[in-house]
């Protein structure tokens, strides 16, 4: 099965059935680029590929330019290690394939991020349960609106 259709001399990417996709496959929907990380029974686990912005999350894995070039991604992108389950590849267009070494790093980063989230969720309820009550520590008088004078200038 070919990855691309040749239409009037131009190669066009096309959708793929989910059985043909391997881990590390890069595809895009109308608004988001995705990379296939794993299969969970019939569902597919994807991670979004984000454009380079100033905001950096701990779950972000920078995509090296060589891998981006090989996979057909724009340069300067990163992968957010946030799993998204999809039932099928409907609406996705295959763009390329990431290398095996980088895919292993991606899976390792995803499992590390999920482990961090599990630890945060495990300790958050206990921390809140053992925290001292803050009731009555600060009392504010009820809010009363200021009288407005038609002669006064109010800027707020």
TrEMBL record:
This protein's name: Uncharacterized protein
């Amino acid at each position: 099965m070919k990855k691309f259709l040749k239409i009037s001399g131009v190669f066009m990417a096309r959708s793929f059935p989910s059985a043909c996709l391997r881990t590390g496959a890069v595809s895009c929907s109308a608004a988001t680029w995705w990379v296939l990380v794993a299969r969970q029974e019939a569902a597919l686990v994807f991670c979004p590929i984000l454009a380079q912005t100033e905001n950096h999350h701990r779950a972000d894995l920078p995509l090296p330019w060589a891998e981006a070039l090989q996979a057909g991604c724009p340069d300067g992108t990163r992968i957010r290690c946030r799993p998204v389950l999809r039932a099928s590849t409907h609406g996705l267009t295959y763009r390329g394939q990431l290398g095996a070494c980088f895919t292993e790093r991606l899976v390792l980063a995803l499992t590390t991020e999920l482990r961090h989230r599990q630890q945060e969720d495990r300790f958050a309820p206990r921390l809140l349960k053992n925290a001292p009550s803050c009731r009555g520590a600060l009392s504010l008088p009820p809010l009363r609106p200021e009288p407005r004078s038609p002669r006064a200038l109010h800027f707020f």
